[in-house]
Amino acid sequence: MTTSTSLAGLVARLAETACVRAPFKLQDGGQLDNYFDEYRLAADPTLLRDVATAMVPLVPSDAQVLAGIELGGIPLVVALSAATGLPAVFLRRRPKGYGSQHQIEGAAIDGRRTVLVDDVTRSGSQLLHMARLLRIAGGPVADALCVLERPLGGRELLAEHRVRLHALFAEADLPDPGGAATA
Ligand SMILES: O=P(O)(O)OC[C@H]1O[C@H](OP(=O)(O)OP(=O)(O)O)[C@H](O)[C@@H]1O
Ligand SMILES: O=C(O)c1cc(=O)[nH]c(=O)[nH]1
């Protein structure tokens, strides 16, 4: 395994480790022939650390809290929290069905500028949903980070709702999927 930390080197390592050449059913019913598997990235501690390090410059200088989205955003937000020293929040897709019944876990929001963290952005609907949740809970949200941006309108949708998207890399940066791992 190479240990290059240049963006191009990092993208090549991500493609080798986490881009999978296999059918993948999407939540909206669509299907991909190749997909980015965040969990292969998160399972590789060196790669996860290097991705988090590369994302540090994307974190706005006025950020006070980082909020990761279940499930793909959770390992990322833990790694990015460790890399930046900013406290982490964990966003459940749905409120816990027992006990605390919390949907927002971890650090307190309390009016602090909160930056969303997720693995992949496609339509932007998941990030928008969570931005609304945080805003209702009293956390100002103006920025969202992701590892991979697919150009499916997410950036534009988020901008309409005053959320800037910052992606580590875009679909166009990925090498030919012929080199992707197989499932
Ligand atoms: O921009 P969008 O169209 O909203 O799509 C992106 C969302 O879809 C993926 O989640 P997935 O459904 O794979 O769930 P997971 O994170 O639990 O694996 C990804 O982690 C984002 O949350
Ligand atoms: O676009 C992808 O690669 C992708 C989408 C998604 O919903 N989940 C995932 O792991 N990858």
UniProtKB/TrEMBL annotation:
Keyword line: Glycosyltransferase, Magnesium, Pyrimidine biosynthesis, Transferase
EC top class named in words: transferase
Domain (Phosphoribosyltransferase): residue spans on this chain: 64-151
GO molecular function, one term: orotate phosphoribosyltransferase activity
Reported cofactor(s): Mg(2+)
Entry binding sites for orotate: R150
Assembly and oligomerization: Homodimer.
PANTHER family: OROTATE PHOSPHORIBOSYLTRANSFERASE (PTHR19278), URIDINE 5'-MONOPHOSPHATE SYNTHASE (PTHR19278:SF9)
Protein name: Orotate phosphoribosyltransferase
Organism in which the protein naturally occurs: Kitasatospora viridis
